[in-house]
């Protein structure tokens, strides 16, 4: 008899809860909350409690697989590595360095992301490396760097409990970041007021003092209307603006172009409510703004985030405890994947690829002779360039076949590649398209670190071995690096972290041995530094905070006679993103077994659709058949579809139009048609 | 090191060294000096045994005994609430008392107040000084949850329960929630995929299922990410059982729950515990 409890970090969302994996006689038998964890303090959501379930799934990949005709057949690791390296090298030799691209992973560790971008940059001299942050918080990193100098959540999760006023805009934290939502309830129990802005009556909205049911894609009119009112009412923080910010005058001129009444007209929210919300935000001693994909996944996503930053600076609600801006990062390590430079324009630590001094530093560290000085392609660009500019693609633990907009186009594009390598734990929709599949390891089978949404580096401890011949991704990347002639001169993730620390000032003090109990929040510049719980105290990262004009563009595709509905996509509580893990977890699968879409009962009646009946949703990109859920959570004229379900993939429908600055697609709004579908008894 | 901790370490070490326990389930420091549940197999390991923070272990004890070989004997280091939970599990045939020794200790004032615990000590304490409990019904935090006015109370609870995220943490953490299949996973009662979980089919079924077994450990509410004061539901029922029948779950091994009473036998018999289940000093039979 032996039972062990292995302390690690949850693999689902960016909250980064503490998990104890229960290992009985070498088998993973349960997930338990960690009572000593600084963020989750002994609690978990349904996904956390079920985190062990997919690990021993019989569908796990256990051997490298090579596509042969229509099917896959297993090959040895030696063959697989030689083939992968050979084909990537061949593409680069034939078509130039920029013909190779890599998609790194927000599900993998910091150390793995670091090695991945190092491999792409050092072996091929290209910056074609990106990951799914492009599809979630790319606007956050761009906008917050422009305004404040740092693209991360300004404060800590626990700070929310101390806020007096909380504005949640475009986030359904109750389903998507459940444990973090607990901190918001703590604030409410202490007397704080929660106001939610969302077109849908989400679980968060149901528990708010006010729910502002905004028309999709009108966040900037709302925020600018609020700011205009605060200027008129003299409720702005003039001292803060004078001492801490710049470029206020032109911004003030810009605001004069907005009126509260005009904002009310565009958003569908009363002028009175806009004024009241603005005043409560400005007058609160400490006020927080929490936002998520409802803000970023728009063609004006960057401007949306800018407007939020402007509002916070206008009222001096940033740079102090319990206030600030809370972009809720989606994936467990999407913060870390960005921090580690799995982005086409920066090295680890957000150090620009165009800066010669930075390049020199990385050249020396990686022992290479040259590095590319131009930013590479983004996720969305690499996919649309597949078979054209991009000839060989290496995808680590990402599933664009469900996560990217217009997946019909994604399938066509990936099909044009000379060589596609997918490294994952399951044969995902994307892996099926690969020429070569490499079996990686999941969170329970590796050591390393994840960085949660509040910039906290946290450890993973290995609980069990990967199945069959599968290898942890760090080892695979080391072997790939070796084969491609830029060997990794150290063993193991702890040594990789030491190298990261030596190259990135903000993580200079991060060492695995310092992370055991509580982790560390960056910036943490030296080994004695205690980490930073909130940013911009006394000084913004960029010096002065900068007011920027949030230029509004309405959604690119609006409902019309042919496509009369707004379609919005998102998540539900029992599943996670592309469902690769959650749909293979029996307890989570039981909770929701199949795809559905929410439609208002009034619309349903008009279309003769009853609850539970099949419907067809069609957009200019494609069409899916799903099951109608009649609910007043959505207003008439809108439908909502979660994107977890491959059999009715919501991203068949979404519009791939991009925000021109951050290149995020407009997942949140497109025009759709809804019809009743004849029931053939199948789904 | 407190004397309570010292005593517990000593006794746990003795049980292992003497072959009277094959394992000790307790809190302990791991190799990185962080406290978490541990299963010690060797006497020399007890140097890293800890008794803080509050961390309910009864359910883990049950699972450990279930997955261990039949001859495996387990010592559980725990607080009064866990002692009561273990006793209930024995009464419900979930744990074989002949394979278990409970090594329990008293809670301090601060913990008792944090838990609003009426009985912050075990019946058969192995270490620590017994302190008076807290009367939860005298606490103002509690009073607002049990307001006299029905409508006011309904509004308050509707608001609190509408926070539920359906994590199932209350059930998963509860030491007594052991039914298979669980009613909360029965389509007849609880609608799948609905959040918040509905008040009557989810929360009240759960609460009533535990009406005569809840030992007031508070593990449900400790595990709730959104701070629903779940223990309040149970304490009202506990109080009522005590007032009407003089019965408290987890205290009397030899008495069955009055809710299981049949009409032929007004006072049904419970069971007899072997002495070593509740005393590390008692002679152990193997």
How would you describe the overall organization of this protein?
Chain A has 683 residues and is α/β, with parallel strands linked by helices. Helix content of chain A is 30%, strand content 19%. Chain A has 23 helices and 30 strands. Chain A starts with a strand and ends in a 7-residue tail after the last strand. The mean pLDDT of chain A is 96. Chain B is of the alpha/beta class. In chain B, strands 1, 2, 3, 4, 5 and 6 form a 6-stranded mixed sheet that branches. Chain B is globular and about 60 Å long. The model of chain B has no long low-confidence stretch (mean pLDDT 91). Chain A binds chain B through residues 1-5, 7, 20, 22, 24-25, 29-30, 32-36, 40, 42-46, 48-49, 174-175, 178-179, 181-182, 185-186, 189, 203, 206-207, 516-517, 572-574, 590-592, and chain B through 22-23, 30, 32-39, 41, 53-55, 60, 63-64, 67-69, 72, 159, 162-163, 165-169, 172-173, 185, 192-193, 195-196, 222-227.
In short:
The complex is a heterodimer of chains A (683) and B (286). With 683 residues, chain A is an alpha/beta fold. A seven-stranded mixed sheet of chain A has the order 5-4-18-17-16-6-7. Chain A has a six-stranded mixed β-barrel with strand order 23-27-24-26-25-30. In chain A, strands 10-9-8-12-13 form a five-stranded parallel sheet.
């Amino acid at each position: 008899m032996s039972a062990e409890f292995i302390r690690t970090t949850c693999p689902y969302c960016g909250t980064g809860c503490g998990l104890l994996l229960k290992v009985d006689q070498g088998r993973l038998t349960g997930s338990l909350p960690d009572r000593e964890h600084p963020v989750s303090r002994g609690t978990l959501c349904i996904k956390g409690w079920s985190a062990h379930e997919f690990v021993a799934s019989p569908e796990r990949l256990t051997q490298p697989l090579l596509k042969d005709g229509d099917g896959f057949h297993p090959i040895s690791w030696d063959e697989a590595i030689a083939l992968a390296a050979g084909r990537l090298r061949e593409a680069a030799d034939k078509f130039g360095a920029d013909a190779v691209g890599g998609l790194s992973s927000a599900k993998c560790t910091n150390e793995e992301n670091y090695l991945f971008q190092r491999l792409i940059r050092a072996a091929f001299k290209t910056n074609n490396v990106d990951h799914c942050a492009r599809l979630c918080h790319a606007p956050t990193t761009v906008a917050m760097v422009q305004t404040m100098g740092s693209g991360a959540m300004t404060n800590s999760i626990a700070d929310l409990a101390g806020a007096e006023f909380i504005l949640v805009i475009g986030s359904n934290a109750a389903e998507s970041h459940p444990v973090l939502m607990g901190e918001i309830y703590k604030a409410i129990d202490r007397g704080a007021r929660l106001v939610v802005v969302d077109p849908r009556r989400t679980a968060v909205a149901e528990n708010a003092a006010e729910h502002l049911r905004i028309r999709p894609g009108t966040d900037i009119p709302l925020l600018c209307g609020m700011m205009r009112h605060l200027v008129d009412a003299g409720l702005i923080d003039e001292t803060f603006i004078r001492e801490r910010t710049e470029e206020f005058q032109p911004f003030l001129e810009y605001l004069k172009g907005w009126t509260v009444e005009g904002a009310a007209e565009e958003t569908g929210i009363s002028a009175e409510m806009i004024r009241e919300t603005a005043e409560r935000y400005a007058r609160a001693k400490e006020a927080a703004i929490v936002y998520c994909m409802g803000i970023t996944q728009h063609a004006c996503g960057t401007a949306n985030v800018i407007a939020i930053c402007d509002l916070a600076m206008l009222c001096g609600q940033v740079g102090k405890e319990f206030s600030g801006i809370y972009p809720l990062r989606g994936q467990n390590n999407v913060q870390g994947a960005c921090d580690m430079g799995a982005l086409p324009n920066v090295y680890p630590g957000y150090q620009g690829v165009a800066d010669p001094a930075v390049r020199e530093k990385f050249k020396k560290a990686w022992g290479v002779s040259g590095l590319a000085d131009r930013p590479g392609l983004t996720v969305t660009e690499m996919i649309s360039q597949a078979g054209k500019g991009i000839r060989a693609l290496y995808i680590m633990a990402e599933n664009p076949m469900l996560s990217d907009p217009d997946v019909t186009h994604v399938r066509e594009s990936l099909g044009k590649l000379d060589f596609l390598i997918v490294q994952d734990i399951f044969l995902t929709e994307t892996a099926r398209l690969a020429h070569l599949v490499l079996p990686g390891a999941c969170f329970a089978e590796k050591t390393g670190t994840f960085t949660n949404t509040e910039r906290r580096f946290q450890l993973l401890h290995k609980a069990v071995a990967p199945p069959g011949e599968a290898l942890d991704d760090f080892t695979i990347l080391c072997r790939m690096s070796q084969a491609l002639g830029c060997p990794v001169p150290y063993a193991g993730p702890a040594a990789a972290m030491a190298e990261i620390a030596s190259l990135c000032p903000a993580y200079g003090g991060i060492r695995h041995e310092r992370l055991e109990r509580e982790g560390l929040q960056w910036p943490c510049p030296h080994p004695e530094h205690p980490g930073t719980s909130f940013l911009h105290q006394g000084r913004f990262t960029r010096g002065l905070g900068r007011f920027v004009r949030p230029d509004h563009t309405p959604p690119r595709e609006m409902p019309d006679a042919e496509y009369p509905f707004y379609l919005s996509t998102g998540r539900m509580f029992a599943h996670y993103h592309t469902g690769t893990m959650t749909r293979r977890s029996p307890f989570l699968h039981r909770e929701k077994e199949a795809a559905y879409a929410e439609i208002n009962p009034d619309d349903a009646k008009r279309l003769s659709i009853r609850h539970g009946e099949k419907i067809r949703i069609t957009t200019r990109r494609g069409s899916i058949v799903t099951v109608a859920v009649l609910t007043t959570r959505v207003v008439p004229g809108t439908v909502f579809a979660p994107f977890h379900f491959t059999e009715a993939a919501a991203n068949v429908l979404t519009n791939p139009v991009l925000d021109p600055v951050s290149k995020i697609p407009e997942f949140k709004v497109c025009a759709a048609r809804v019809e009743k579908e004849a029931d053939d008894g199948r789904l | 090191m407190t004397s309570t901790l010292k005593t517990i370490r000593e006794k746990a070490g003795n049980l292992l060294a003497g072959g009277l326990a094959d394992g000790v389930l307790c809190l302990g420091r791991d190799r990185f000096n962080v406290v978490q549940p541990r299963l010690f197999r060797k006497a020399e390991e007890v140097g890293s045994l800890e008794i803080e923070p509050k961390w309910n272990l009864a359910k883990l004890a049950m699972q450990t005994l279930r997955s261990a070989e039949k001859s495996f004997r387990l010592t559980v280091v725990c607080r009064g609430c866990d002692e009561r939970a273990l006793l209930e599990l024995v009464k419900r045939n979930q744990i074989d008392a002949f394979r278990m020794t409970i090594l329990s200790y008293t809670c301090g004032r601060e913990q008792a107040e944090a838990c609003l615990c009426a009985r912050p000590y075990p019946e058969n304490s192995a270490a620590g000084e017994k302190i008076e409990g807290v009367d939860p019904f005298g606490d103002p935090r509690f009073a607002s949850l049990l307001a006299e006015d029905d409508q006011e109370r309904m509004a308050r609870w509707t608001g609190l329960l509408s926070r539920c995220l359906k994590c199932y943490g209350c059930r998963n953490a509860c030491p007594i929630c052991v039914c298979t299949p669980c009613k909360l996973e029965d389509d007849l009662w609880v609608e799948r995929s609905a959040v918040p979980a509905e008040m009557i089919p989810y929360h009240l079924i759960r609460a009533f299922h535990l009406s005569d077994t809840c030992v007031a450990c508070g593990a449900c509410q400790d595990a709730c990410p959104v701070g629903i004061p779940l223990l309040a539901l149970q304490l009202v029922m506990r109080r009522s059982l005590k007032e009407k029948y003089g019965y408290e779950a987890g205290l009397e091994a030899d008495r069955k729950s009055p809710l299981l009473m049949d009409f032929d036998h007004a006072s049904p018999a419970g069971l007899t515990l072997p002495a070593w289940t509740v005393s590390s000093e008692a002679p152990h039979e193997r």
